[in-house]
Amino acid sequence: MEYHEPRNSTEAALHEYKSGLGVFTQKMPEIARHYNAFTEACFMEGTLSQKQKHLIALGIAINAQDEYCIIYHTKGCLDTGASEEEILEAIGVTAAFGGGAAMSQAVTLVQECIVELNELKQ
Questions:
Q1: Nearest residue to 61 via CA among 38, 25, 87
Q2: DSSP string, 41-83
Q3: d(CA 120, CA 52)
Q4: Which among 78, 63, 89, 80 is positioned nearest to 112, based on CA atoms?
Q5: How remote is the C-alpha of 1 from its chain's centroid?
Q6: What Å distances lie between residue 118 and 7, 31, 83, CA to CA?
Q7: pLDDT in the model for residue 17
Q8: Which of 24-33, 48-57, 79-88, 113-122 shows the lowest mean pLDDT across its residues?
Q9: Cα distance from N-terminal residue to C-terminal residue, the chain
Q10: How many CB atoms lie within 10 A of CB 71?
């Protein structure tokens, strides 16, 4: 895999996460294999679409204040065709449960990710 310098903070965080996951996979291959198989099964198209599953995961990540998962699932939402409006509506539901802490992630990190990920597509 060829390395290139991240073009923005969102891409840098995605590279950092993938790098850390790679190190973990080398050190704990069986756990990583089972974890990856489990999460792949959870995100397979089913009664819920992959887009719906990423929107749910984004809400959970925001509520848990997990910045890497917020970035990863914002990307997942966009990659599976979620519009900015759908993402923001999911964030609104999350904020109804998570209050100000959830809203602060939504109005900062998620919006930054949307802008930066869209820039990378251009």
A1: 87
A2: HHTSSSSS-HHHHHHHHHHHHHHHT-HHHHHHHHHHHHHTT--
A3: 23
A4: 78
A5: 22
A6: 12, 33, 11
A7: 92
A8: 113-122
A9: 22
A10: 26
Above 80 in pLDDT, residue 1? Answer: no
Q: 53-78: per-residue pLDDT in tens?
A: 999 999 999 999 999 999 999 999 99
Crossing angle (nearest 10°) for helices 67-79 and 111-121: 50
Helices 67-79/50-64 angle, 10° precision: 160
pTM for this prediction:
0.89
Q: State whether residue 99 is helix, strand or coil.
A: helix
Distance CA 50, CA 79 (A): 10
pLDDT tens digits, residue range 2-46? Answer: 667 889 999 999 999 999 999 999 999 999 999 999 999 999 999
Give the residue carrying structure tokens 């069986």.
30
As given in the structure block, the two tokens for residue 60 are 């959970």
Return the pLDDT at 75. 97
